[in-house]
Amino acid sequence: MINKNNDYKMPIVLIGNSFKYEIESICKLFFHTARFNFTDDISEASGDNYITAKTEIVENTLRLSAEVRLNGGNVEYAEKMLPSDSEKNIAEHELCRLIYHILCRKTGITPPWGLMTGIRPVKKVTELIAQGLSKTEIEKNLSERFELSPKKLSLAYETAVNQLPIVKNIDRSAASLYVSIPFCPTRCSYCSFVSHSMDSAIKLMPQYIDALCRELQIIGKIVKETDTKIDTVYFGGGTPTSISADDIRKVMEAVADNFDIAQIREYSFEAGRPDTITEEKLRVIKELGADRISVNPQTLNDDVLKVIGRKHSGADALRAFELARKIGFDNINTDLIAGLPTESAESFKNTLDTMIGLSPESITVHTLTVKRSAALFRNGSENMANPAAEMVDYSIEKLMSADYMPYYMYRQKNTVDNLENVGYAKKGFESQYNIFIMDETQTILGAGCAASTKLVYPDGLINRIHNYKYPYEYISRFEQLMEKKQEVTECLKKIKSIPLK
Question: pTM for the whole thing?
Fold first, then answer.
């Protein structure tokens, strides 16, 4: 449709308002990889494609109006009247609703999550549960406001109910630790994370590992000085097992030397890609305290693995999983992606069924997201034409019938069919760290390149401190980066006053 040429920017004219972010989010539901040019110049409302979004006071009434033209077709107009003293967020929501309904009619697309555009749909459910609303009242509230499909509403509610016992027991006076190993053997075509191939990063590796261990020492000192408890530890990336067993040992020993890991509730390590997993690495990971790992095939279809740039086979993934079991890991997660290029619905179902047969403690089903920084984005909307919705629907039914319950969820822009990413787990094996990240009620201390520290203050204020994205920056500007740690100290001092829920 309009985004066949990724250099083209569709005009969106804002008149009398500055609702750019939400309007763009609504448009992205229909034109996933399109680009937009926001302007207040009404002359831009011409040509084959444009959208106008207007607010104005007319005779003591606030009039909202939208006009849409696509691909040279007929112009469609809609308006709604509100009281002149309506709050800004209500006017924004209702104007977005006008655009949403026009685009539904013009494109034939009805997004399953309706007008809900945030990445944390479950939080909207938990907020209503906290207000004492019943399931029926919550469903009515969210259906009327966001026009969710019954399937997605049910999924969000089930996820909220399953994670609620953990959310209620989050220790807000504690913190979790995230350790970033931002390297991969190769870059997958769908990847938008800040990760670097081992070929390009190998010369920097010794310096990077040394700098990371220094940062862990600095953060550890702050944690000890403020008498802060570390609740969970998570090694992510990239692919942390891209580095050698010796380097894994060095970094994990830095964690053990600088933090009290004897009392933590969960220690996760993303072993990730099967082509990086060896027995030696897994033994080091287990020896040094990790009790939860991920083995992530994404698909077991060898042809699809080649298309996305993976250098391993489906059989390699199965062998890596069996190796982890042999070494003694009894809490294994596996990641799959619905909607990968060239993947058929049947192929995805076979992958999921096979993984369920291995009985991992948790399975996370992501939906393909086409980000601008990913190689797949170059093909524009062509990547959106696949049976991802059928795959996701199958995964919900199949996993829940196998006693895997949804416990955390997030959504992203540019996701195929406007779908979601959901973590499913057997009872008692929910990842606490994943819930903490989504619930945003516990401080996360990030160490390493591209890591983000999320400071959650007692009043609910959240501030993020981002480490440099690239290894050479992280290494060369390390001292400058460490100057930002003073705010971490102040936050940890303040959260000490928060009682355990």
Answer: 0.92
